[in-house]
Structure formats: structure tokens, C-alpha cells
């Protein structure tokens, strides 16, 4: 592969729609308590929670910081994602990246508006729909095989 001409010319690389989001920022060293445990210093109900390992603290802090952000201009105001998989799913379902959205899952109840037209991209969303809208009614075994 030929070296990039961007580094040779000093020009900035063109803005790309990243296939793999990255953290929006680099987190500093975690605070530690007197016992040498990592602590959450975010001002909410988990303030002071301790973690044995730095990786545990870092994963916890992702919930507060939501570091994985969509680089697409139409998503500038969108809150970030807590993990990279959430960003990848967003890019696939909203922007058609990474092979585009998965096949739509439709409601098995033929009298439901979600039976034809707009279905669901995630099985858990269909199951939640069945629970809420159809009072948890089970689909038939033939319909289950479509899930």
C-alpha cells in the first residue's frame, strides 16, 4: 500500500464517515481513594463507587461520558453512545453503513400496523412491542421461526 500523501503534504485528510467510531476524548488518570481503589467522581448517585481495576472504572465512566459519537453531520446534537457497539448499530441502522440495516422483523399479528410496512430492526424491540401492544401474547411456532 502506498504511503498517504496527506502526511507528506501536510494537508489534513478529508473528513470521513468513520466505520468504527472512536472516543471523543482521552480520559485522564482516574482518581483513587486511600486504599488504592479507583473511584467514580461523577456527581450523581454513584459518586464514590469504587473499582478494583482501572478497566472497570473506565467502563463505568463510559456510562457518564458516552464517548462514542457519530461523526455524521446530521447527528451533531445526538448524545454519544456508551460503547462502540452502540455506535456501530446506529451507523448501520440510521446511515446504512456496515452492510446496511438488517432485514426488518415484522409483527406476527396480521391486524397490527407493524405487520406490514415499518417493522423492527432488532428482535428485542419486536419482543417489547409484543409485550406492550399485544399484552405479551406469544407468536405461533411458525412465526417464531421468522424471528
From TrEMBL:
Ranges where the C2H2-type domain occurs: 110-139
The answer to keyword Isomerase applying to this record is no
Task: Report what the protein is called.
Answer: C2H2-type domain-containing protein
Chain residue ranges for the region called Disordered: 1-31
**From the UniProt record, which GO molecular function terms apply?**
zinc ion binding
- Ranges annotated as biased composition (Polar residues): 1-11
Query: What Gene Ontology terms describe where this protein resides (cellular component)?
Result: nucleus
Top-level taxon of origin: Eukaryota
**GO biological process entries:** regulation of transcription by RNA polymerase II
Q: Which Pfam families match?
A: zf_C2H2_17_1st, zf_C2H2_17_2
Per the UniProt entry, the signal peptide is: none
> Is Calcium set as a keyword in this record?
no
Keyword line: Metal-binding, Zinc, Zinc-finger
Amino acid at each position: 500500500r502506498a504511503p498517504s500523501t496527506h502526511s507528506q503534504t501536510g494537508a489534513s485528510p478529508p473528513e470521513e464517515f468513520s466505520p468504527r467510531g472512536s472516543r471523543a476524548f482521552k480520559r485522564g488518570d482516574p482518581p483513587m481513594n486511600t486504599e488504592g481503589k479507583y473511584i467514580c467522581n461523577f456527581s450523581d448517585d454513584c459518586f464514590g463507587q469504587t473499582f478494583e481495576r482501572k478497566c472497570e472504572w473506565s467502563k463505568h465512566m463510559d456510562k457518564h461520558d458516552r464517548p462514542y459519537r457519530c461523526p455524521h453531520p446530521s447527528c451533531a446534537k445526538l448524545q454519544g453512545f456508551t460503547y462502540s457497539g452502540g455506535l456501530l448499530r446506529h451507523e448501520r441502522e440510521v446511515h446504512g453503513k456496515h452492510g446496511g440495516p438488517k432485514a426488518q422483523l415484522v409483527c406476527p399479528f396480521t391486524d397490527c400496523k407493524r405487520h406490514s410496512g415499518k417493522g423492527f430492526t432488532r428482535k428485542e424491540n419486536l419482543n417489547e412491542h409484543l409485550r406492550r401492544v399485544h399484552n405479551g401474547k406469544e407468536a405461533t411456532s411458525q412465526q417464531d421461526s421468522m424471528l
